[in-house]
Backbone:
């Protein structure tokens, strides 16, 4: 009698064990990870500044109780398409370069003109947020030794050193209205070649070593600190303003809380502060801690 009762009892026990195993079979269950994608995917461009800004945005959104995370993105044309499709919610950008991508025939030259033209250029499927005071306007830079030896102080003087030499800068520089073609047309400076860089520190090293003669750097780049390099004066206002902005998807456009969170970040972000933040990240501090500390100090998180 006892043996008959043991069989169903054993079956019940096995069912319970198997049920328990099936629950534990999900690797996300009990691990503290969320299986669902965040509501707001923020694209992080392939640069130290892009990663930093993306983290500032994510932390600011999370502080408002919104679900957000970052994802690496590549070329501007690619992430604009993803924003239109809705697989991205937001990407940090620069006003002048963004306008040039959206409307290659634009004729803006001042910060006000650029900002006024951006909404129409973006169209109904995208939103361009209010820019920050922080400006990453590109500077063309040479070593102080070259500036002193060749008497070069402005872009008008570039013709003295451009012939047969290499210009270095971000990969998208040739597509900008202030790229190599503009240097040749406006300032008469024709380089033998252009070398693209993703890492401004590598560009600074090559500039110092003489591998490149002139480098194009973001105005907030910490590598320009000190007196080793000279920024050349753009006497013809060839370089477009490049204030920090962000471009968002239709879904982001429809969320006023999310927009307000990012525009509050922009309102507090100056050129000097962005340079300091980039310097902290460049020195090895984790980008999430740098972003969290800055937002907390300004009451944004």
Residues:
């Amino acid at each position: 009698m006892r043996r008959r009762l043991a069989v169903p009892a054993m079956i019940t026990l096995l069912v319970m064990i198997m049920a328990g195993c099936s629950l534990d079979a999900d690797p996300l269950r009990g691990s503290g990870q969320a299986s669902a994608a965040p509501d707001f995917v923020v694209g992080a461009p392939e640069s130290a500044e892009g990663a930093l800004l993306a983290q500032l945005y994510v932390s600011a959104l999370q502080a408002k109780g919104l679900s957000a995370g970052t994802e690496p993105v590549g070329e501007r044309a690619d992430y604009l398409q993803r924003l239109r499709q809705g697989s991205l919610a937001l990407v940090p950008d620069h006003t002048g370069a963004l306008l040039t991508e959206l409307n290659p025939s634009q004729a803006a030259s001042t910060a006000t003109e650029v900002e006024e033209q951006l909404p129409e250029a973006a169209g109904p499927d995208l939103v361009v947020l209010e820019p920050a005071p922080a400006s990453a306007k590109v500077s063309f830079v040479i070593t102080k030794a070259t500036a002193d030896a060749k008497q070069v102080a402005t872009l008008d003087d570039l013709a003295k050193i451009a012939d047969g030499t290499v210009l270095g800068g971000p990969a998208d520089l040739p597509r900008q209205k202030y790229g190599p073609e503009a240097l040749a047309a406006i300032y008469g400076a024709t380089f033998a070649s252009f070398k693209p860089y993703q890492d401004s520190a590598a560009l600074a090293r090559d500039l110092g070593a003489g591998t490149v003669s002139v480098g194009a750097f973001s105005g907030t780049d910490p590598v320009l600190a000190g007196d080793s390099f000279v920024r050349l004066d753009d006497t013809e206002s060839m370089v477009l303003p490049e204030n920090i902005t962000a471009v968002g998807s239709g879904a982001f456009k429809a969320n006023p809380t999310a927009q307000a969170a990012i525009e509050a970040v922009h309102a507090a972000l100056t050129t000097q502060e962005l340079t300091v933040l980039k310097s902290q990240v460049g020195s090895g501090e984790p980008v999430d801690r740098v972003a969290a500390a800055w937002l907390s100090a300004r009451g944004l998180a």
